[in-house]
Each structure stands twice: as C-alpha cells, then as structure tokens.
Amino acid sequence: MYDLIIIGGGVAAFSAALYAGRFQLKTLLIAEKAGGAIILTDDISNYPGFKKITGLDLFDKIKDHAKDYDIEILAKKVREVGQHKDCFEVSTKDKTYKTKTVIFATGTELRRLNVPGEKEFAGKGVHYCALCDGLLYKDKIIAVAGGSDSAAKEALLLAEYAGRVYIIYRKEKIRAEPINAKRVDQNKKIEIINNTNITEIKGDKFVDSVVLDKPHKGSKQLKLNALFVQVGHVPISDLAKSIGVKTNEKREIVINRDSETNVKGVFGCGDVVNSKFKQAITAAAEGVVAAYSAYQYINLGLQSQ
After folding, report:
1. Each residue of 285-298: pLDDT tens digit?
2. Which of 50, 65, 79 is nearest to 11 (CA)?
3. Which of 54, 95, 177, 213 has a CA 20 to 30 Å removed from the CA of 167?
4. Contact between residue 238 and residue 80 where contact means Cβ atoms under 8 Å apart
5. What is the chain's percent helix, strand, coil content, to nearest 5?
6. 90: three-class secondary structure by DSSP
C-alpha cells in the first residue's frame, strides 16, 4: 500500500513527488513518458531563479532534485483508476497498485485543427513542435496556426531558421505576453494574418499550401512549405472523471486553493486543472500544494471539502 500515487510525468508531477519525498510519504510516480509539454519549449525566461533556460534543462533539474528523495518512478501507462472503501487502485497493463491518495498531474494533449489534409501530411509538413522540427525548414516559408503566447514563441523560434513566417489567427489580435507580442511585431520575417481560419492543407508528397477562409493579398491559397499547429491543448482528465472527479466545460479537473478535488483523497495539479494561468511555475506550486494536502489528509485527516 502506497501513501500516494502521482499520475503524470511533467513539472507538476515531479514537484509533487519532490515534496512527497520530503514529507516521507511512500510515493509512486507513474508516467508513460517523463517531461510533459515543457520539454518542447526552447526559451524559458519567466521561471524564478533562471534568467534563461530551456524547458528540457529546467525539467531535468526538477526531476533530478525529486530523485534525491526516496520515491519510486515507474515508466508505464496508467489504464484504470478505481476507488474502494479504504483505498484507490491504480492499474497499468500488467499490475495494480493500491494507495491511500492520488494526485492527477496528467497534463494535456495537443489540440488539432481537424481540417482536411492535417492527418495526411502529419510529419510531412504539418508539425506541432518548432524546437523538434523547425530546423528542417531553413530559409523556407512557414506558417503557425494559432494566436496564443505559445504560437508567438513558436513563430519567433521558427524565424531563426525560416525565410518567412506567417501567424494565421482567427481573431483580431494575438494573445501573446506583451514582451513576446513586441518581439513578433519587431521581427521583419513574421507577418500576422488576422481574422482568418485555415480550411484545408494541400500538397503532393509534402505540404505546399494551405487554403484560407478569406483572401490574403487576393488569394485564398497561401503557398508555404510547412505548417506548425499551436491552437491549444485538451486536458487529459478521463481517468479522473472515471472515479467521479468533477471537471468543467473545458474538461479541466476542478480544484480549490489546496489542490483538492471533490473526491476525498484525490488531488490535482498542473495543466490538467482549472487554473487560469498555466505556467511551469504555477504547475510546480500546485504540485507542491497537492503533496502537502495529501500529507495532511493521510496524517491529520484534514480536507476542506
């Protein structure tokens, strides 16, 4: 019987594991893959204590710190979570583990455009990570679909390689942090196409153009060599929902300030929960709070809900 099982492998999960180790809880962290979304980020300049660091380096530091404590880490996919009178059961393909408490730090998965051509050209001009695939398109014409801060940062990174970068966004103005919006505006390689949607991705063996829902410079067909999709993320919350954990209309796990869910003994943290501001630093903080709340629940029987 474990005191705590953490489901997830990103910043929130390993921050929770670090503190669970400090609290001397018998802890198991289960994740099919370690790292989460942050390892795909090239430039992090807003994590306290680091003026500039890559997402992979930041994650490795957090993971290595957590491993200083007596915790177990299992590289498996969780297939099922069950609730019983005196414990929870967390099952992988070949084994079931019992625990007093559970933390869901399951993160999100990339949202797709869901337009014709996206599946057909995946890896053949349609990509979801500039850090992973941007270097393939040196001096080429690239577009980024989306208008978030992530989309702006993808465009800025791609501009280091490409000859031209378009940001195609369905609304009037991109929603980047002011510092990144300014960088986009000042970058001569980047052009924003506002109030426009992509309706189709076209090509032969590889992407050669996208179709827009309104003309850009007289044509609805925009010639390019690659499209990087950054249109948001979908919370991975089905496992939590299966044991009655409340989610909102965005499928995010609903937590309070103590990272508690509506189910006693179950906690949530990171991108999968209903926090408005999703950053590495907020994920780390929620993970720490979740571990502390699990510790209180086990040792003091405290739960505010």
Report:
1. 999 999 999 999 99
2. 65
3. 54
4. no
5. 25, 30, 45
6. strand
For residue 300, what pLDDT is reported?
82
Q: Which residue has the tokens 């962290």?
A: 29
Q: What would the CATH number be for the domain defined by 2-110+233-300?
A: 3.50.50.60
Spatial strand order in the sheet of 219-223:
198-203, 207-216, 219-223
- pTM, two decimal places: 0.86
Selection from 259, 229, 304 nearest residue 15 by Cα: 259
Sequence letter at residue 56: L
**3-class SS of residue 67:** coil
Measuring CA to CA, which residue among 37, 28, 22, 32 is closest to residue 102?
A: 28
CA distance 92 to 166: 43
Strand duo 226-229 + 233-235: pairing? unpaired
CA dihedral 140, 143, 144, 147 (to 10 degrees): 130
Evaluated on CA atoms 270, 227, 183, 214, the torsion sign reads negative
Instruction: List the chain domain ranges.
Output: 2-110+233-300, 126-229
Helix (H, G, I), strand (E, B) or coil at 19: helix
Chain segment 208-264, per-residue pLDDT in tens: 999 999 999 999 999 999 999 999 999 999 999 999 999 999 999 999 999 999 999
Residue 42: pLDDT band (50, 70, 90) is confident
